[in-house]
Amino acid sequence: PFEVLVVGGGPAGAATAIYTARKGFRTGVAAERFGGQLHDTLGIENLPGTPYTEGPKLAGELKRHVGDYDIDLMDLAQAVKLVPASEKGGLHTVELGNGASLKARSLILATGARWRNMGVPGEAEYRNKGVAYCPHCDGPLFKGKRIAVIGGGNSGVEAAIDLAKTVGHVTLIEFDTKLRADEVLQAKLRSLPNVEIVTNGQTTEITGANGKVNGLRVKDRASGDERTIELEGVFVQIGLVPNTEWLEDSGLTLTKHGEIATDEEGRTNLHGVFAAGDVTDVPYKQIVVAMGEGSKAGLSAFDYLIRNEPA
Ligand code: FAD
Q: Any idea where the FAD/NAD(P)-binding domain is (predicted)?
């Protein structure tokens, strides 16, 4: 069995494995796709100390860094079930989609999250070519330009307020008849001169030319009328879905959003089971945050292992 088994190989999983391997613990990493969301990311400009890199390049460097240690990296390994140890200090079991099962004294869950897509024509085609999901990451690319934010919940309205400072004009589009964000955020949004709010609006298509977004089709759900808004960017803010479906029925506490509930040391409600990164309830889903949380969870696992004898 492993002393530490990390499930997930994004920035959080990679960081945690490096930390536990450096403590001399027998560490394994099981990841469906090592690198995680980095593979969907083009330019990264907000990783301090690295002024510019690209997602797949960073994923390759993380893989090389993990490879510098005696870490058993199982790529293309999907976890389908967690069976926690029946007693404190006992072995946890993670079952894989290929029928294998892995045992470990401690687990660090870092299976990340995925942005919910609108599923309209043009969205996938123009991803990273005007269609964006992360205002903290891609906001500055749209300086002075016209953009839309899709979604009138807290994340959409926060994104619109944030982006309105940099971009030329923001159209916020909400499917429902009213915004769902906190009132204080709505008031802030309404006070901004370069923001238009569209409610009861259904985005039907993202249009483009020459490999770049040039507009968005939106239907008024009351009248059925459709119009085109000319713009250069679309930020989709309709939810970030944690990859925790495989943990339902495991006894692990999830929040109402399906995120793994953790304390400030990355501990979950189960002894010897830790979690880090986008899959948890930690605020702000960013690479540097995921790496920091992964390092913390690794050190917490170390602390657990030296204080608890194997059952
Ligand atoms: P993830 O990167 O999601 O990795 C999860 C890992 O778990 C993957 O290896 C995955 O294959 C694996 N996994 C999932 N389910 C299972 C399972 N059942 N069994 C086994 N393995 C599983 N952040 C920034 O800081 N700067 C940016 O510029 C930036 N740009 C972004 C652009 C885009 C388009 C996107 C989508 C995100 C961007 N982010 C950016 C956010 C950043 O990518 C995430 O915050 C970060 O990757 C989270 O790391 P993580 O390790 O928690 O999860």
A: 3-294
| Closest by Cα among 27, 102, 106, 105 to 69 | 27
Tell me the one-letter amino acid at 278: D
Mean pLDDT to the nearest integer, 103-121: 97
pTM: 0.93
Nearest-angstrom CA–CA distance, 191 and 186? 9
- CA-CA distance, 44 to 135, in Å (whole number)? 12
- 101 φ/ψ angles, rounded to the nearest 5 degrees: -135, 145
Q: Express each pLDDT in 30-78 by its tens digit.
A: 999 999 999 988 899 999 999 999 999 999 999 999 999 999 999 999 9
**CA nearest neighbour of 6 among 308, 258, 273:** 273
- Unique residue bearing structure tokens 């968005």: 216
CA 160 vs CA 146, 180, 189: distances in Å: 12, 14, 7
Beta strands 233-236 and 146-150 are parallel
Ligand 1 close to Cβ of residue 58 (< 6 A): no
Alpha-carbon span 281 to 295, nearest angstrom: 16
Is 135 a pocket residue for ligand 1 (Cβ < 6 Å)? no
Cα 179 to middle of ligand 1, angstroms: 28
Tens digit of each residue's pLDDT (9 = 90 or more) over 175-204: 999 999 999 999 999 999 999 999 999 999
Q: Count of alpha carbons within 13 Å of 124, Cβ hemisphere only?
A: 3
Measure 141 CA to ligand 1 centroid, in angstroms. Answer: 21
What is the per-residue pLDDT for 91? 98
Q: Provide the sign of the torsion angle of the four alpha carbons 257, 259, 260, 266, taken in this order.
A: negative
Mutate to test the pocket of ligand 1, among 129, 240, 245, 287 (most ligand atoms within 8 A of CB): 287
Residue 311 has pLDDT above 90, yes or no: no
273-296 average pLDDT score: 97
